[in-house]
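> call design_seq(struct)
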């Protein structure tokens, strides 16, 4: 039991550490949680699904690609841009939000499973007459594993639900003020960001 818990905690630490590494290029931080983006211009033209590459004080930069993700080593053949005055609206979406939410939720749900097992153990043990007979069953590896699975399942379900809400839309309509209101949130969602890495490096 203790070895299993130790292994799970070690895995959780590894995931957090791996995701907190900061890579910098040209003063921008690589953001592995960068978003897909759909842009509509002021003439009503809808651009193909792309990846939000970076954001400047007056323009959006994006890469039209079949891929839904980007690595820090990726060198796009063409980076397109559009001035805020030509942007009517845009939508961003996290890559595989349901899968990522389920993974994180599943990992974080394991402690819930441990708590469920401990609570069930105490409840059964305090049950008159049958408590002493059933208590040994709750210490069995199969029961402990079942509690882990239950907790991870609950966490994965909640994570997947939250991941499904990772879609965001902005109505810019070519206005400078609306673009300025959105620029910080858009920067956080770009693959190369001025702020995303600062938050991770300060943790």
């Amino acid at each position: 039991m203790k070895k299993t818990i130790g292994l799970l905690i070690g895995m959780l630490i590894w995931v957090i550490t791996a995701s907190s590494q900061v890579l910098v290029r040209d003063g921008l931080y690589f953001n592995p949680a960068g978003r897909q983006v759909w842009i509509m211009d002021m003439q009503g033209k809808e651009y193909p699904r792309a990846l939000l590459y970076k954001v400047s004080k007056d323009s959006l930069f994006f890469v039209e690609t079949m891929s839904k993700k980007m690595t820090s080593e990726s060198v796009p053949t063409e980076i397109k841009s559009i001035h805020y005055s030509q942007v009517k609206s845009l939508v961003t979406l996290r890559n595989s939000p349901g899968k990522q939410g389920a993974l994180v939720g599943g990992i974080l749900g394991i402690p819930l499973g441990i708590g469920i097992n401990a609570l069930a153990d105490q409840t059964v043990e305090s049950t008159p007459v049958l408590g002493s007979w059933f208590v040994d069953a709750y210490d069995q590896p199969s029961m402990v594993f079942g509690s882990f699975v239950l907790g991870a399942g609950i966490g994965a379900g909640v994570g997947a639900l939250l991941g499904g809400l990772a879609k965001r839309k902005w109505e810019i309509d070519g206005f400078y003020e609306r673009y300025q209101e959105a620029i910080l949130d858009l920067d956080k969602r770009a693959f190369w960001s001025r702020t995303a890495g600062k938050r991770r490096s300060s943790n």
